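Structure catalogue
Derive tokens from sequence
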Amino acid sequence: MQHDPTTLKDLSLLGASQSVFQLLDHCVTSKGRHTLRQFILQPPASFEELTQVQATIRFIAKEKLELPSTISNGTLVMLEKFFESADHVPQRPSGIQLLLNKYFQKAFNRNEYTFTQFSISHLADFIKGCTNLTSILKGEPALPLVLKEALTSIQQELDASRLTAALLQVTPDTSFTEMATLSYEARRDLKSSIHRLIQWFGKLDAWYSIAKAANIQNWKFPTILPSSPIQFKAVGLFHPLLKAPKPYPVSFQAAQNLLVLTGANMSGKTTFMRALGIAAFLAHIGAAVPVIEMEISFLKGIITNMHVEDNIQLGESLFMAEVQRIKHTTYKVISPEPHLILMDELFKGTNVHDAFECTKAVLEGLLLHPHHILVLSTHLYEVAQQFQHEPAIRFAYFETDLSVSGNYRFTYELKQGISNDRIGKQILEKEGVIKLLKGIHD
């Protein structure tokens, strides 16, 4: 699946706070965290790859597998420091040197003495942890293919090393002489192998993290369907970053692939589209999704038009920035491969007449491309009414409860049809803006 930085930002997929990444991140190592981030930046590129990755994460979640406790972030950090000097390994120490070295290091260079013991202990813990991981190969004959390949690769690395058996025997009682010998041999022979094992462990850490998130959040794994015919159906879909989210029904298919949303500002249109985008994205990294159940076709990418800003450095007005973004979106629309395209209240940077004409033209163009999932929200209800008899478009709106006294309440309920709510002036009046302008103070 393809996306871009704007889409990542619009959907809050990455970030230090209030992001989807935070919900997924249960990694035990920084390597796993980095790998998880890469999964988000570069999701599986094909239907086959995605279904295999999802099968692996689903298996880990179902079996509630845990990573070995012997491997921590400190373990990997220590191994990196240990192998930094691997290219400058001194000659093998002799027996007398080892004997003298033990007392000399302990008495005059405790840091080096401790470093050797500490490093080999961590290296042994890492090898033991990797060995523990591969034990799944013996107990589960029907492992998912991708998981089996990862564990088999780890097993092959362990089998290829003549030091594996010795490192598995390391205990707190292992002599310094043995540790010093292992330190020399490991630095000379294991640098490349340990680097590859760390890469594999990082990938497993990321998979286990996504699986753990599924169980903690009680999300469900969606059914991933081939790209054609296009469809996206969900029951109880909700935005995972909200404290009290409203569940939505979702239904798209080739015969009705375009949804036009209407409703007052703040009624829930943007939140709904973000929930759609997040669910589709999570499905395309093999993760569980905040739904009761869901089916979605494999998509080539997601593109959003939500929070477009002017660009002072390039001398672009808001309207020109919007035009450039819709132009970028159009390249995806004319692609034969299916995308999820989310457009939120286009052309805010121009007058109402121009916005009406531009939005109408975009909708006419979108109708020519039935192989995408398309969502467009607009506060220009007249645009929606122009297309209300078009069978390829489904219309929905978020209702606002209006009282006789002028008060309003957002229900966040998604209903079929086109909204006629106009509450902008009522909001101004309720917030006291009109009175302030007139010099009236309560």
Summary: Residues 115 and 366 are 64 Å apart (CA to CA). The beta strands are 223-225, 231-237, 248-253, 258-263, 293-297, 301-305, 339-344, 373-377, 393-402, 408-416.
